[in-house]
Amino acid sequence: MARTVKGGTDARRERWKGHREARRAEFVEATIRAVAKHGPDVGMDEIAAEAGVSKPVLYRHFADKSDLYLAVGRRGTEMLMDKMGPAIEHDGPIRQRIKRIVDAYLSVIEEHPNLYRFVVRKSFTDRPVEQDVVSEDKELIAAALARLLGDYLRAFDMDSGGAEPWAHALVGMVQNAGDWWLDRQSMTRASLSDYLTTIIWHAIDGLLRSAGVELDPDAPLTSDFPAADLPEGPHLRVVDVEEA
Fold first, then answer.
1. Which candidate in 30, 39, 117, 178 could, as Cys together with 51 as Cys, close a disulfide (CB 3.0–4.6 Å)?
2. CATH 1.10.357.10 placement within the chain
């Protein structure tokens, strides 16, 4: 009998935990909608109204404004990586891959400019937050790019030691250009993507040429080496357009 009571209590506890997590997720989405409507300086009153609840209800699910901010920031990271992940992983000519990655990032901040400013500015928080959502996003993207750059460099028997710092440099450049673009809006997203793609490609091209490698940026790259012929890990090679 004691085991039955304990089992029933645990089941109720799990259901309640699931309910609270679902409600938190609903309130995070409501906050994102409120930010989109009212801007990055949105207040709890606007968020509560968007959620259709009172502020005390929000505070029953979030310890304070900073707790809500972090939950929104984590959701923003998911939204960003939903676009960035496939762009980074998708195969294709190198210039096409660069543009796809750059444009994926710009598309997110273009679609959610107020959410981006809300997360970056941190003005909503009511206490210092230990977790830096923006830095974590940059680390995620830079780590993925470093792996990609390292694959390219190793494919051409080049030193891949610089892949990580180069990846961080590229992330910083694109983020800063995106900040400028959001404020100025002096060109289309497509134009900015083209400009950034050009400078990134020429940086990579210069690096390859320094090692005696000349690569057509619009030629397909493939990873279809026979597995038995190569050591473990991803590999790339240049192929003729007719072959692709």
1. 30
2. 72-212
Q: Tell me the pLDDT tens digit for each residue of 154-198.
A: 988 999 999 999 999 999 999 999 999 999 999 999 999 999 999
Overall CATH class of domain 72-212:
mainly alpha
Predicted model pTM: 0.82
Domain with CATH 1.10.10 in the chain: 13-62
Fold annotation for 13-62: Arc Repressor Mutant, subunit A (1.10.10)
Q: Alpha carbon of 6 to those of 9, 12, 151: distances in Å?
A: 5, 10, 53
